[in-house]
């Protein structure tokens, strides 16, 4: 059975509309137009063949073919407009919405030890201390001798030392300071009482590390020299500092200790934050219930005299605290070595 010319026109129109619905861009529309309405397009073929038909058929089919042509052309324009609107909408969707909140840029932060050092110093500054700094590469005369720790004195063993090889006058006097106490003497040499200074700084010790010991540590040294300074001032200052740092519920314990440059000497500890206080396997207190934060004491009379101050008039106290130890308590970190591993997952917590 052959298709009649009428059916053929109807089929071209149906197929044409169907194909048009599947176009998705300008190039597809063009290709469609060439295939259907172009010079050798399917509908154009029918219109060309009209001449061979008898006049009656020609008239009827011609009218039908022209209707189909108009319908297809209108449909083409409609489809073109629809695609244009869709493209515009998608550009608008991609456009910047200025009302949206911005994507947060990753921000750096201060190292927890820096944060805690600043907190410590903030309290002492409020208490009237001046913050000063001193050299990390020190002379043994300041690190030891002037603090009543002469060469070969067994007290030098309290601080295992990193020495430099450089010789000065046949000796090797340079070291990485083991504590911030040499700044007591350096400051006294150039200042007169009253003195009230806090000295933050890094110190280095050639020693094995564990949960409460590092080979590099920060200390904050305190030195107060004035008329009538007593042990009560030492205790009151450190207790007030501890209250402001840790709050009123942290227990602070002061007990006898020995440092050649103070008399009497004490150490200050706080109750263990990592265990109930009696766990022998606790890496922080080893079952003692206490974590030592600092050494302190009344500045030795010999040192006051060596600076040319009148020891009958001036007395003073000094202290040296471990910043990492304070940070352990404040931040609840039970292994001091975590601070300088520089693991971003650890550091990002603070
Ligand atoms: C001293 O360094 C004395 N200069 C402190 C002092 C100053 C006493 C003024 C009297 C007058 P000591 O070695 O105990 O003392 O250290 C003081 C504090 O530093 C300790 O209580 C502890 O908190 C911290 N510390 C000491 N060694 C380490 C270490 N290896 N790792 C971490 N912290 C440490």
Overview of the molecule:
The protein has 350 residues and is of the alpha+beta class. It has 2 domains: 5-95; 112-347, BirA Bifunctional Protein, domain 2, CATH 3.30.930.10. Helix content is 40%, strand content 19%. The chain contains 11 helices and 9 strands. The chain has helices at 5-21, 26-37, 42-49, 55-94, 112-126, 140-143, 182-190, 231-246, 301-306, 323-331, 344-347; strands at residues 130-131, 137-139, 174-176, 195-204, 216-227, 252-257, 262-271, 290-299, 314-322. The strands form 2 sheets. A 7-stranded mixed sheet has the order 1-4-5-9-8-7-6, with helices on both faces. Strands 2-3 form a two-stranded antiparallel ribbon. A hairpin with a 4-residue loop joins strand 6 (252-257) and strand 7 (262-271). It is rod-shaped and about 140 Å long. It starts with a helix and ends with a helix. 30% of the residues are buried. The model has no long low-confidence stretch (mean pLDDT 93). Bound molecules: adenosine-5'-[phenylalaninyl-phosphate]. Adenosine-5'-[phenylalaninyl-phosphate] binds at residues 179, 181, 205, 207, 213-214, 217, 219, 259, 262, 265, 292-297, 318-322, 324-325, 336.
